[in-house]
Every structure is written in structure tokens, then in C-alpha cells.
Design a protein that fits this description.
Structural class: alpha/beta
Radius of gyration: 20 Å
Number of helices: 14
Order of helices and strands: HEHEHEHHEHEHEEHEHEHHEEHHH
Distance between the termini: 10 Å
CATH topology of the largest domain: TIM Barrel
CATH superfamily of the largest domain: Aldolase class I
Largest sheet: 8 strands, parallel
CATH architecture of the largest domain: Alpha-Beta Barrel
Number of strands: 11
């Protein structure tokens, strides 16, 4: 393999392949993470939707399958601005969609996820378990949380969608930055979802961050194969993070409807939407995104994750009535390149493709 890309990160984490499996809350599993780690990459678990006890159990399941490094990802979203009138109006707007599924909307919406900023139980569990890596999405934790995790010997990552966020990550003492391009599937890691998004693609963002910070850069967004990994390494990234590539693997928790869309025509149409969760996220085209496209004003959507409570209820109602078009079918623009493989076989394919591409390039 070429020595052209920075090795600091992969040496620090004892990786054989510069591949990070994206955490993907609700989709990644201990089996997926273990397969990635056991085959030379960095496996990840997204625990932002879990309580500390659930996250603890998932980490223990991983450790039954692997003794290698693990990345545990948490959500660091801002304080929720609850607004009962806006939430009630949102449920009324969704009522016809619930009716299509033969269901009534819930009477009330709730904040279904606790931000890591306010989750002392999660912090204590992470310090006790000491995964090799903890990563942050949607913002930065408190300085005391960073200090506590560092004192436990944990390597820290945080997502950035622009140079300003990357500089804040560097100033906070985080060890490496995930450059999340606009192509990426799932939730945008923007610190403030209400300001204008620069919508930087993975390649320019990676190059900008490599040039503007001394931190190792992990490129994320639209990377599906070894050629994509090689491309970002040549731009100075230390590793590539792949999410959508793993959604269709055997170990993924994606349901049948999600897989059907990933490997069907919907894979050619992904779009950014806030209607499902309250935050911008890239999703495969489905009934929910089509409904959301006609929304006159995004300001009527409740805050994340309150809006997600409604989205999950609608998805459950749809599935109960045999409709799979209301799910959070997160996927990046590279979705048509997804492969139906085990995570182990995908890692083998990535290794072969990366080595082949680098030999051609050098």
C-alpha cells in the first residue's frame, strides 16, 4: 500500500485498513462493528438513541466478538425548544398520513433522545468501558466531558461540515475530525441546523480541512468502494468513513423495506429532508420524503428529536398496515453502489480494491 497518506490515526488505533464504519444509530450492530474491526478497520456503534444501560450491553456484545478497537458515537444536539402549539399543529398536519395507514397520530410528542451534553450516565459508562474511540455528532460536548474521556485514555472524534466547525473541534482538544460531505447519508452533523448550510461536498471539504487544521481528517460521504477510499487518501485524509456501504450487509439492522429501497430504483434518488426527524438528513426517496417536499415552511417542523417521535410513530403505523414508505431510510448519494455482502466480505473487497487503485495511482 502506498505511503502517500498520513498514518498517525491508523497507527494510533492499530488499524490495518484506513476504513471507519459509520456508527449509524439503529442500523449498526455489535456483529457489524466486530466484523469490521476483526478485518482491519474501525467498527462503530451508534448509541445516540440508547440509554446508558442499552449502550453498555451493546459494547459488551461487541467485546464477545472482538478484542479490537471500537468507536462509540453519541449525539451532542442542542437543547430542545419545546413548543406545544407547534407540535400539536404538526400532528394535525400528519393526520392524513396516519389515516392512510389506518391509525391516529399520537396525542403528544416527546423528546425521545437525551443529548450527551446532559447524560452523566452515558459518560460514566463510557469511562468504565473505555472504548478505543468516542465520537460526537451534531456538536461538541462540555470541556469537562472531553477532559474526563481523555483521562480515561479514549481517542475522540467529532464531525464537521465546514472549516469553522473543524476549527472549533481543534480548539476543543478533540483528536481527529470527520469531514462529512453533503453527499453523506443520514443526519447532517451541522452544529446549528438553522443557519445556512455551505453544502460542501466530501472532496473539497476534505481538502479544506487538511489544509486548515493539523488534526487527522476522516473523509465521509459518498464513499462506497476502494477507489473512493483511495481518492480521499490522495487528498490528505487519514481514513475514509463508510456508512451506506454497510447498510445492506448481513449484519445491518435495516429492515426488509429499507433494503428493498436501497437495492431498488429509490437508490438513485436521495434527498435532504427535515420532516422525518426535525434535523436535515439524507434519505432514500419514499412516501415521507415526497410528502415533505410539499411542505410550505420548514419552520413548522418541531425540534429534533421531538419531530422524530412523530416520524417513528408514523413509520410504525405504516409498517403495521403493510406500507414501508415512512421509514428513516438514510442513505448517501453513492447508494446505487451498495452491495449485498457480509461485512467481512465487504471489508475484503475494500482491501483488494484499495490496493489495486493505489498501485495504479503510483
Amino acid at each position: 500500500m502506498s505511503n502517500a497518506f498520513p498514518k498517525q490515526l491508523i497507527e494510533r488505533l492499530r488499524l490495518q485498513l484506513p476504513v471507519v464504519q459509520a456508527p449509524m444509530a439503529g442500523i449498526s450492530s455489535p456483529a457489524m462493528a466486530a466484523a469490521v474491526t476483526n478485518n482491519g478497520g474501525l467498527g462503530s456503534l451508534g448509541v445516540g438513541a440508547m440509554q446508558a444501560e442499552q449502550a453498555h450491553a451493546a459494547i459488551r456484545q461487541f467485546r464477545e466478538l472482538s478484542d479490537g478497537p471500537l468507536n462509540v458515537n453519541v449525539f451532542v444536539h442542542r437543547a430542545v425548544r419545546a413548543d406545544a402549539s407547534r407540535e400539536d399543529a404538526w400532528l394535525e398536519r400528519l393526520r392524513p398520513e396516519f389515516a392512510r395507514c389506518g391509525a391516529e397520530p399520537p396525542r403528544q410528542l416527546h423528546e425521545i433522545y437525551t443529548s450527551f451534553l446532559h447524560d452523566d450516565g452515558m459518560l460514566a459508562m463510557l469511562v468504565e468501558e473505555r472504548p478505543a474511540v468516542v465520537s460526537f455528532h451534531f456538536g461538541l460536548p462540555h470541556p469537562r466531558q472531553i477532559e474526563t474521556l481523555h483521562a480515561a485514555g479514549i481517542y475522540l472524534l467529532a464531525s464537521a461540515t465546514n472549516v469553522q466547525e473543524a476549527k472549533a473541534i481543534d480548539a476543543a482538544g478533540i483528536d481527529a475530525v470527520v469531514a462529512q460531505g453533503y453527499e453523506a447519508g443520514g443526519h447532517r452533523g451541522v452544529f446549528d441546523p438553522d443557519i445556512e448550510d455551505s453544502r460542501l461536498g466530501t472532496l473539497p471539504l476534505t481538502r479544506l480541512l487538511v489544509g486548515s487544521t493539523a488534526l487527522p481528517v476522516i473523509a465521509a460521504g459518498g464513499i462506497m468502494d476502494g477507489a473512493g477510499i483511495a481518492a480521499v487518501l490522495m487528498l490528505g485524509a487519514s481514513a475514509a468513513q463508510l456508512g451506506t456501504a454497510f447498510v445492506g450487509t448481513n449484519e445491518s439492522l435495516a429492515d426488509a423495506g429499507y433494503r428493498e429501497r436501497l437495492f431498488g430504483e429509490s437508490s438513485h434518488r436521495t434527498l435532504m429532508t427535515r420532516v422525518i426527524s426535525g434535523r436535515p438528513a439524507r434519505c432514500l426517496a419514499n412516501d415521507f420524503t415526497r410528502w415533505g417536499a410539499s411542505l410550505p415552511d420548514e419552520r413548522m417542523i418541531p425540534d429534533y428529536p421531538i419531530a422524530y417521535d412523530a416520524g417513528k410513530a408514523l413509520n410504525s403505523a405504516g409498517k403495521a398496515s403493510g406500507q414501508n414508505g415512512y421509514g428513516a431510510h438514510w442513505a448517501g448519494q453513492g447508494a446505487p453502489l451498495a452491495r449485498e455482502l457480509s461485512s467481512r466480505d465487504l471489508m475484503t473487497a475494500l482491501r483488494i480494491e484499495l490496493a489495486h487503485t493505489l498501485r495504479i495511482a503510483t
